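We emphasize that the prediction below concerns an isolated chain of 240 residues; any contacts that depend on oligomerization or on bound cofactors are therefore not represented. The input was used exactly as deposited, without trimming of termini.
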Amino acid sequence: MICHCMLIETNQGLVLVDTGFGTSDIQNPGQLGKPFLALTGAQLNPSDTALAQITALGFQREDVQHIVLTHLDLDHAGGISDFPNAKVHVYRPEHEAAMHPSWREKSRYRPAHFKHNPKWVLHDSGGDQWFGFSGIQVIEGLGDDVALIPLTGHTQGHCGVAVRSAGGWKLHAGDAYFYHGQMEAQPHQPVGLKIFENLVQINKRQRLENQLRLRELALEHRGQVEVFCAHDPVEFERYA
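Result of the prediction step, given as a token string:
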């Protein structure tokens, strides 16, 4: 598994979709929690952070003006403190869950990732439609080219992030699914990932409903929309 982040060049600076692990996680792995590290075997390499990769492209951390998050799990939001001047966009129900977690949610959200007082921009469910998905919220200031697509189930406020490019739309589906085979006409996945998916979900019914809708989108609108998730190395290789 990998942590697939997406960097977008816009007229308003760089936009980062998800951040993966951050510099502080590399320096202090204990803040991620021993259970998470034991379960995932996370490889914490300084050169893999979003900040290190963006710097290697010739940009500065200040060039990242916006961070748009699929959700606030520790492996998606760990790097937001590496970009303290960026506006951090997140679906309001997800922010509420992270700031006031239930006992089931405490292990997935890490206060250390938010202690720098991020510049939160909270988004409510919008009134727009996108390929049959409702409740869409366009990210203000970025035209109508970047939007949050509610895909709850994995977490209370989990979203996909849709980005319009010259070749059509790309949808970063976060953790709405974990394996490329789940988007095929005959869906399949490794047993271990299926167990993991069920273990970390917050609402199974919502997760499965949204996964079905994503599969229909990927199959029926191929050529118009490219769908990929956060943790599949096969999908990552399309763009690497």
